[in-house]
Amino acid sequence: MTGDTHTKPVAIGGGTYAKAMPNCVAFGAEFDINESTMHSYNEYVKLDDLKKC
């Protein structure tokens, strides 16, 4: 879907509310070409990247 055939997927551990809901998966996509703002005080995602996910 994204056209990226080189970047390998990464999985990390952690707790989410998904465990409290049946058939739910916590998912957070991040593209390797962007600066990572994951879990920072000004966390954001570009709308174009969100649409690719």
From TrEMBL:
SUPFAM superfamilies: Zn-dependent exopeptidases. This is Xaa-His dipeptidase.
